[in-house]
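[SOLVED] Need 3D model of a two-part complex

Original post:
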Amino acid sequence: MPNEKKENMIEKIMNEPQPIPRKVPDYMRSKGGGWFWTGAMVMFAFLYEVITGLILLLYYEPSSAYASTEAFLSSTPFGSFILTTHLYGAYAMVVLIYIHLLRNLYEGAYKHPRESQWLTGVLLLLTTLGAGFFGYSMSGDVLSADATDVGRGIAGGLPVIGNWVLGIFFGNGTQLSLFSRMLAWHIILVAVIGLLFAVHFFMAEYNTIMPKREESGYKAPAIDHDDGSYKPWYPYNLVYMIQLMLLTFGIIIIVPSILALLPGVPPLFSPFPQVSPTSPLAASIPAYPPWFLLFVYKELDFQFAQSLTPFWATVIFAGMPLVYLLILPYVDKSSSLKMRDRPITVSFAILGTVYLASLSLWGALTPGIAIANWKVALFFFLPGIAIITLTWVIADAMKKEKIHVRNAPWAFATMAIMAVSAFGSGILILADIRSPSLLYTVSMILTLMVTAISAAVVIAISRGIFTQRVEVYKPMSKNAYTLAGSGFTASAIFILFEISVINPDTVFKTSLYAIGLGVLLLIGGAVLRIYRATIYHE
Amino acid sequence: MNGKNDADEPVDKDRRNFFKFLGVAAIAAGGIGALRGVLENVSPPITSAFSSFPTLLLYSQAGKPIGTSDLKVNNSTIVLFDYPLQNEPNFLLRLGDSSNNDQAIDPTTVTIPATGKTFKSSGGVGPYKSVVASSAICQHLGCIPPIIHFYPPSSSSYPGKVHCNCHGSTYDPYKGFAVVTGPTTHPLPNTVLAYDSSKDQYSVTSLVGPTIYGHSSDLSGGSLLPSSTYTEITTLTPTS
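Solution:
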């Protein structure tokens, strides 16, 4: 398969159709195999979004966006279930995309032959954030109004064609035009996601799922070769996929349904729309965009960004990382998949995570507060220098075999967490000094603890204290499986009965129904896991 | 096909079937549970604009209550008002005989051919008991004025009848808008009027007979009228 001729991938796919879906080795389905299916989980979240989104489409009225959203929540049976899980399904999709992206970044999955597959993946991230932005803005609440204003400011700042682009995305200025356009763009972008996903998926099937790096001796191209021992796709992989789907759906349904029952969930993570922008209470809610765009929002607060216009500030802060991701596979052409041989890529990945998370945290803590240039410089250069140097030193030491870092991906990932929480505690210390409050003090202590724990974990991982357990397949006894499976299924039927008699007349009862349904789906996943363990010995 | 593991242990068919049952039952439980939410969600809740019929004064477009003299006997112009919701036009007719003298309309029993059931028509109001009203939406397939309208007794075609030019349904306004010829199988819903003789004002109070065409209830499925005290009359010229 490594390119004998210079045919492009489209030609190859058409001329030599590959068996789809491709068989996969057993280790991709056993413990820890979930890491090979982060993309599949994104797909399931997308599927969930399409289903709930089409239901919402039956009810959404652009002419009265906020009123129709509120009516759907309060007076349509199971409305709060569909709306809150649609929101959290989108959140899950964004989070899973970041996980998928970071994993492939650390593993070097973007390298030959998966360059164009990576490219479509980055475009999928972009279209997903875009669809998320429009979807979030459609509720017509005060947060959506704020987010729309920022979006308008950015789009309108485009040189020469700014007003034209503004009109295309946000309409002619009337509320009806605005919400009709946002509904249309939300759906158009989802259609684009669907198409790009199809391309991404066919490329993934063509290039095979990237096997464990040791299979190819830590060298690109890492291609999975079926040695004839692979189990057929049906039923083994199908059952596994259904298990993953039930798991993804279950989590998407349970999380917002629990949050819906809790009082005082902060606006950023509340599963419900906030008050209408015309309400007197609107002033008490900070102007937040959706959390996954907080970083864009914060960079507009920088002192020099304010002289740049929002458009150019976004080009610099969101455009540069995007360009970096797009050209990465065409620049980093080395064949080694080992992290120690790629300190630049690895340190940029850590740094990118740190910047993204810290900027978001900053945006959440100080929404709309201008930041002086020297602070911005400090924010970017200090962790930049520290992380690049540190990664370089560690990589060099590893190469010279002075130290052995076991579980390097985990060590690097924990380093990112450490840096972000260190930044968070820094801000909180400053805030606590300026205006002492219990909330700040408690959060400060918490973030300091996270920093300390993650530092300890980094050291522990690097020194091999968490030794890799030898993977031995130790099934429970047959009878234990039978008992567990029967117990799960019996409780599933009991829960089904419970949620079938709940009268969904309040958000509270609807949330109870949704929690029950989420648990049902998780039970389905657990029973499938048991089924695979007992019958397939996986 | 998958030698190494299955070889250790012979396939126990009962066991496999039992676990299959467990898996299918657990997933089916999830599916049924989800289906309930989705099915109940997609059918739109009926939002009733009113719990009972509102009483509205009939206003002219000048913004004043109309009196008997504002209504012409056997008017060939179509006079309409919306009731009880927007986009629900009703005919307002002052009926007379062939020499255009007011004719008193007595309540009568009207049969609904589709069901065989009957209802008591509302009858005329006003000083001469000659003013009647009905829904102006044809009960056959929902055509609205000016395609459906009243032909005065002097007209050469359908004299003294309400006729719909869409498919030819004909109703008799003198007999509670009963069906004269099909294809309709329902009379027009009678709009009940009240007359205040001391002020010479007309008001509309309710509907009797079949439900307005295309509605599951007369009180739902539309937007509220702009006013909760009056409804304005509009006029249209018949097309044929």
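Edit: The first helix of chain B runs from residue 3 to 8.
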